[in-house]
């Protein structure tokens, strides 16, 4: 059974500036949980799957099941359901999931000595709202919310929703042979179970039309559909109804040649698309003088740090191992034979489902110049010697980014790309070994399966707003322990040092700031700093 570990770490390949405060990762423990609890996990997973087209968002039930001590129960889960069935026969089936949540909150609240006997208040349309009614409802709300606080002071939870992040992490894991090992460990359920949970989320989040969206609630796109289809195939899935529908969706809308730029790059890396079908992302751009406005050091950090490893991989024309599975997928993603695809035409092809805004005339001129003139010249001798220098410079920047974020990265996209760059540089490097355990910082488990988060959490950001909300109720004294733990978390999550030689790597001052997530992330955010500082100075 999976366990949520909060503020824990250790081992030779994990580093932290504050003892992993705020880190929330799921870890498989074969001895954890009773048979009844494991059966309940399977039940909520099954119910989500059955209703996945009606409600695509999970309710974080697996996390809520684990926030209290399993050994401290006044009565069992089965008894609780039986009690509610006798008292709520008319709407029992509708509210079963709500009962699940209430039960676990109730037990945890009792353990933590929180007030749990407050009556639920339902007002008729004509009823008068009194101060007592409001305070009772507010106390009930805050009591339940307090029960969800982790022992380190923050509120752990799901921060996913983007459907291309898990596929790119799976591609990373393919390169380091994690899933190859898992697939061959057939007799060890502790290895097979992660595959089951990862597969489950890809199937659960498939749209009724057979495609996948770029985000959970979005319509199907070529980007989401191709990457999720490829992920299922790389994980060993073979022809089934879901894959057949997914492939039909892709082929009906122009095949994988119509995937947008980021998708073209990822498919090129894995060996399912040719680099000649990509627009040029020249690494030499990083060697131009910094005073020029086109220097990437002047770009927004997310843009710069995502395109930096993309530029490295493009410059190397890196392609992973071509296995029989890759060869088979090549024939599945395209409407013509892979060898007959016109990559020059594919370069500028994008499905209408993915096209948010057509390229301007200026953009077309720039891309044409880069593809037709600049890139060919840069590959001619002796100018091609410059590319080696550019690639070494990029790798230096990539290592700096990894080390300054304790191998978390500014987001999962640049982390996944940086990992592949480290693998291409040296598959046995310490950098790659330091990357691996931090993959779990981006994984989250819920009833819909194992999914990838859009960041390593939003611990500091959310906590600042939560504290302000509590303090605005004038019930601070009643929730003192909760707020004191929150204050300690904010205090200990402040970034205390500037990154060394930061100006050479286009970083600003970070000392004294707060990040969106944890201090280990290292990327200061102005509004997170403002809200955290407001809480630290105004409310305590």
From TrEMBL:
<feature type="domain" description="Squalene cyclase N-terminal">
    <location>
        <begin position="207"/>
        <end position="412"/>
    </location>
</feature>
<dbReference type="InterPro" id="IPR018333">
    <property type="entry name" value="Squalene_cyclase"/>
</dbReference>
<dbReference type="GO" id="GO:0005811">
    <property type="term" value="C:lipid droplet"/>
</dbReference>
<dbReference type="InterPro" id="IPR032697">
    <property type="entry name" value="SQ_cyclase_N"/>
</dbReference>
<dbReference type="Pfam" id="PF13249">
    <property type="entry name" value="SQHop_cyclase_N"/>
</dbReference>
<protein>
    <recommendedName>
        <fullName>Squalene cyclase N-terminal domain-containing protein</fullName>
    </recommendedName>
</protein>
<keyword id="KW-0677">Repeat</keyword>
<dbReference type="InterPro" id="IPR008930">
    <property type="entry name" value="Terpenoid_cyclase/PrenylTrfase"/>
</dbReference>
<keyword id="KW-0413">Isomerase</keyword>
<comment type="similarity">
    <text>Belongs to the terpene cyclase/mutase family.</text>
</comment>
<dbReference type="GO" id="GO:0031559">
    <property type="term" value="F:oxidosqualene cyclase activity"/>
</dbReference>
<dbReference type="GO" id="GO:0016104">
    <property type="term" value="P:triterpenoid biosynthetic process"/>
</dbReference>
